[in-house]
Amino acid sequence: MKLRSLPSALNLKGKKVLIRVDWNVPVVKHEAWSMKHVPPEDTLKIRQSLSTIKMLKRRGAILIVLTHLGRPKRRDQEHSTRHLVDVIKNEFDLHCYFHPESVMRGVEHERLERMLLTSKPGAIHVLENVRFEMGEEDNDQELAQAYASLGDLFINDAFASSHRAHVSVSGIAQYLPAYAGPNLVDEVTALSRLLIKPRRPFVAVIGGLKISTKLPVLKILLGVCDKILIGGAMATTIEAAMKESVGISFIEEEVLAQAKKIGKNKKVSLPIDALVTNKQADPAHAHVVSIHKIPKQEMIVDVGPETLEVWEKILHKANTILWNGPIGMIEIPAFANGSLHLARIIGKRVKGRPFGVVGGGDTDPLVLISHTKKQFDHLSMGGGALLDFIAEKGTLPGLLPLVMSNK
Asked: Which H helix or E strand runs over 119?
């Protein structure tokens, strides 16, 4: 798939450029949005997109930044992108104008248009959370036209959102000259290598909470990969489906039959031991047991050392590695050790000739914390988008309007 990228010779000076980024970062958890020294893993998506923002700024474009933040049910201060402007100013010393106006309210839309008309080349304007607008997630064409009327061209540089058929992702592209941003092009180029003649052995490591959300991609990977290592609560559901006792661990009862089919596949490797603890997930009571001997009143919170040893031998032979999803309850630091150790195992292997891709909102920070980012060939900003890209073989809603014609 070849995407239509922004021509380097195109004169952007004074042109109003609508750019969709994915700044859906977890800085909302901090007590003060304007605080300095937000952990770098919490602003990773912003930092990744700033190269494109700064390039357009240098070329004299008037930037109109679109992003979502969280999943708001209504307009509220907690999910306002005003907070992102504070973070960008404090963390990256980059000045942005914030605009709270709704593009669907006549008077506010006109005010926004007037401000943009008087803007100077290189200015950066951040609009309010796109999910505050009714119709964003329904790809409402009236809303798409309202946004499009503000700009001269549209750039999608948000791979992490490109699996959504939303107005700010695919709708606006129907009404303006539309291009793929550099980060989006890099994502598609790297991830396509997983689908088009990957170097073998190809090993995927898949973790996380729910297997139900990853069943489509697991089916595709079983046909593409030589081995799939499954951890996290996903593995727990499979183990339960295979009639193992998993104590009080989280399982998805509604997909046990499908999980059993996954678990029986010879390409799948499941944990053989686990770190378990009581229902309070107390690190002080954590201990390692065989996967066949999980106590009835305890839960699985991480993989055990024997599992990591087995997986390291498999990964050591791999020439293509995909990692998505943690293999433990990483929100509690004491239970993140397995995932961090896994990051180092994979990082060491892909540092040389093998090709390594990691992605996901919970997985990318592990790479930063373990100091293995530079060892991976590609750090994808997508979690759901990465998996959907594989499951749909690249045909994501946000990419389709940007595909170059064969004519």
From this structure: none
pTM above 0.85, yes or no: yes
Sheet with 178-180, side-by-side order of all strands: 97-99, 124-127, 62-66, 16-20, 153-156, 178-180
Which is nearest to 305 in space by CA: 333, 330, 280, 273? 273
As a whole number of Å, the end-to-end CA separation of the chain is 14
CA-based Rg of the chain, rounded to a whole angstrom? 22
Buried b (16+ CB within 10 A) or exposed e, 343-355: bbbbbebbeeebb
User: Which two three-digit tokens encode residue 272?
Assistant: 């053989």
Cα–Cα dist 128/69, whole Å: 9
Closest CA to 191 of 405, 406, 3, 404: 3
Spatial strand order in the sheet of 227-230: 268-269, 227-230, 202-206, 320-324, 355-359, 378-380
As a whole number of angstroms, the distance between CA 372 and CA 218 comes to 26
CA–CA dist 287, 309 (Å, integer): 17
Peptide bond into 201 cis (omega under 30): yes
Helix, strand, coil abundance in the chain, percent, nearest 5: 40, 15, 40
Q: Which two tokens stand for residue 396?
A: 């994501």
What does each of the 407 residues of the chain score in pLDDT, given as a tens digit? 799 999 999 999 999 999 999 999 876 554 545 555 677 788 899 999 999 999 999 999 999 999 999 999 899 988 999 989 988 988 899 999 999 999 999 999 999 999 999 999 999 999 999 999 999 999 999 999 999 999 999 999 999 999 999 999 999 999 999 999 999 999 999 999 999 999 999 999 999 999 999 999 999 999 999 999 999 999 999 999 999 999 999 999 999 999 999 999 999 999 999 999 998 899 999 999 999 999 999 999 999 999 999 999 999 999 999 999 999 999 999 999 999 999 999 999 999 899 999 999 899 999 999 999 999 999 999 999 999 999 998 999 999 999 986 54
Task: Judge whether 207 and 232 are in contact, CB under 8 Å.
Answer: yes
Q: Retrieve residue 260's tokens.
A: 């059993």
State the Cα–Cα distance between residues 100 and 108, nearest whole angstrom.
9
**Distance between CA atoms of 283 and 327, rounded to whole angstroms?**
16
Burial class (CB in 10 A: 0-12, 13-18, 19+), 313: exposed
- How far is 156 from 162, CA to CA, in rounded Å? 8
